[in-house]
Amino acid sequence: MPIDKWSDKISVVHLADDPQFTEDVQGLESVIRHNVSIVMDFGGVRYINSSNLSRLLKLRKQLSDTDARMILCGLNNQIWGVFLITGLDKIFEFSDNVPTALATMQMEQ
Fold it and tell me: Cα angle vertex 39, ends 34, 42, to 5°?
């Protein structure tokens, strides 16, 4: 999983389809331990299943115990539809693309 360290407090994660997606999200636990906010780039993800949603929710819960944030960006229409149908669009924070997500995080630090 490509992780770009944008700053001491922000990392950008470029996700891919399963099975890599599952491994990528599980690997983020080490990043969370360092109280780092995460921009998750879904540009390489074409679909998402309930197991992946569960992992994202678990990751969000772990982040909620810290001062870090998570912004999801680059979602295609199919993935965005899954978040809308499940109501998770109200739980996660979204951005159109990586630069906008980074700007949002930097302005609110």
Answer: 135
Residue closest to 75 by CA, chosen among 94, 53, 102: 94
Q: Angle at CA 49, nearest 5°, toward 80 and 18?
A: 105
CA distance 86 to 69: 21
Give me the CATH number covering residue 43.
3.30.750.24
Task: Retrieve residue 27's tokens.
Answer: 């690997």
Percent of the chain with pLDDT over 70: 94
Per-residue pLDDT tens digits for 52-90: 999 899 889 888 888 889 999 999 999 999 999 999 999
- Give the count of domains, the chain: 1
Q: For the whole prediction, is pTM greater than 0.70?
A: yes
